[in-house]
Amino acid sequence: METGHKTDTGVSVDIRNISLSYGKTPVLRDVTLAIKPGEFFALLGPSGSGKSTLLRLIAGFNQCQSGTLHVGGTDITNIPPWNRNIGMVFQNYALWPHMTVDQNVAFGLEERRLPRTEIARKVAAALELVGLADFGSRRPNQLSGGQQQRVAVARTIAIEPKLLLLDEPLSNLDAQLRLHMRVELLALQRKLGITTLFVTHDQEEALSISDRVAVLDGGVIQQVGTPMDLYDRPASAFIANFVGTINVISGTVTATSSGAIFESPLLGRVPLPAAVATSGSAQVAFRPHTLSLAPPEGQTAPGTIRIAGTIAGREFLGEFIRYNIAVQGNHLIADQPHYSGNIEFLPGSAINVGLDPTQLTLLPT
Fold first, then answer.
1. Fewer C-beta neighbours within 10 Å, C or N terminus of the chain?
2. 45 and 179 belong to one structural domain
């Protein structure tokens, strides 16, 4: 790759049956994952799920007890990190405070003993890519958090790695800057065409910029898919609850020739298009924004399930208001868009909740 120009293609990453333990504590359990060339791929999960451990294993800083790692078709399982040609941006950026921006970016190139003219050219090209062409003489303490993050990225791409690893690179930034920098990161990745793995515990971050996402929990891959796959078709109750906010209702499901019937005291009998292998206990899930709210005298849309409830609480979240609704011993979360003139419901108010049955997802048992 020539820094500053898009690569012809990224490399694939194949993680095959990798397990890793610290003493008797398993951290990664038989992880298998295939990442496509040029993908912006996110590893998402709660703290302690194993996502950063997996990223550091790919970089070569951790060693697995079993399994293999292939990058670009080459088995690199036992290759030391300095021979892998993989770039990593750390959560704290790891910039040298006594060095200028130019010197920080040049560090990896100097370690490779490249000619000075080539180092200068690559440093200038990398800083141009991240929009810091005029900041080379400054030191890290003279930069904002977002600028420091871009220097860390520039230092990594200057060595022209075949794979880019990002370990929670936005976690030290304020909310507005995080939004701006994640757009910049994706634009840079698209420009370079480099395969990128991005570790985050922030669901919105992962869903907004990734081509695909792997969700980890307890060192196990729980689901892999596009952001919309994970959001619309969660493979388990854990995924449904972790990826966004969701309502989950328990009941029973009965298989039919055309699909299934879900039944619960709250929803009654609801036909579902999902095929089920066996009848029995089940759960359905639906997102808060799919619910409609109306006063008791109001009408719900034709075809919707009508549920009477009481507003137990509400949160104003800017673009929408999130209502906590008490219904038959359960609590539902409903998100309603906020705009001037829209009806607002106060705590203690009676309410009619409208649920479109087509928005129900039958969770796998």
1. C
2. yes
Residues 6+ apart with CB under 8 A from 17: 30, 31, 32, 66, 67, 68
Domain shared by 190 and 104, yes or no = yes
Inter-helix orientation angle 145-158/101-111, to 10°: 20
- Percentage of the chain modeled with pLDDT above 70: 97
Q: Looking at the structure, do residues 274 and 294 belong to the same domain, yes or no?
A: no
Q: Are residues 28 and 157 in the same domain?
A: yes
Distances in Å between the Cα of 92 and the Cα atoms of 2, 45, 117, 172 are 27, 19, 30, 7
Name the one residue in this structure whose structure tokens are 């079993």: 66
Question: Average pLDDT in the 181-190 region?
Answer: 86
CATH number of the CATH domain containing 332: 2.40.50.140
Q: Please state, in angstroms and as integers, the Cα–Cα distance from residue 323 to each residue in 226, 241, 242, 339, 351, following that order.
A: 29, 17, 19, 15, 11
Among residues 237, 269, 295, the one where a domain terminates is: 237
Whether residue 346 has pLDDT greater than 90: yes
The answer on 338 and 213 residing in a single domain is no
37-78 residue pLDDT tens: 999 999 999 999 999 999 999 999 999 999 999 999 999 999
CA quadruple 180, 182, 187, 189: dihedral sign: positive
Domain range for 261: 245-285
Predicted confidence at residue 224, as pLDDT, reads 97
Q: Per residue in 195-245, pLDDT tens?
A: 999 999 989 899 999 999 999 999 999 999 999 999 999 999 899 999 989
When the pLDDT of each residue in the chain is averaged and rounded to a whole number, the result is 90
Integer Cα distance of 249 and 287 in angstroms: 12
